[in-house]
Write a structure and sequence with these properties.
Layout lengths: L4 H11 L9 H13 L8 H20 L7 H12 L3 H8 L2 H8 L7 H11 L3 H4 L4
């Protein structure tokens, strides 16, 4: 959910809170300290509402300041294979020959659209990760 300045203003006014959009590291650190203090607040209470708003503000700042890039598709496949205990022969059952799997994992062959579909379904890797250039 995209958090707009208007939403923040309305929420601040409704709950009489002093929080605003986080614009720098000093404000970010101050918000983190406050979040830690009210972390166990019960939902529906004033502090619970403050916790929810503060979480949104911190999340928005972190997404803008520290964006997380999508992982390399091949590294994502290797990671997921390791998690599932898969070997290259297991992947060969999904996308074809063992030699083809080797070429893909060594970045000598590009993934085809059909391979991406099968890998996404079998390994539960989002297609947007598998579509990324490598």
């Amino acid at each position: 959910m995209e958090l707009t300045n208007n939403m923040i203003k309305l929420t601040r006014k409704r709950f009489n809170m002093e929080h605003k959009v986080i614009k720098n590291e000093k404000e970010y650190n101050k918000a983190l300290i406050r979040l830690e203090k009210i972390f166990d607040a019960k939902k529906g209470t004033k502090e619970g509402d403050e916790l929810e708003l503060l979480s949104l503000l911190i999340d928005k700042y972190e997404q803008e300041k520290y964006p997380i890039d999508l992982p390399d598709p091949i590294e994502a496949i290797k990671f997921r294979m390791e998690q599932l205990g898969y070997k290259q022969k297991d992947l060969a059952l999904v996308i074809g020959l063992k030699s083809r799997v080797s070429e893909i994992l060594n970045k000598k062959r590009k993934l085809t659209l059909e391979m991406i579909r099968k890998l996404s379904e079998t390994l539960s890797i989002p297609t947007d990760i598998l579509l990324k250039e490598y």
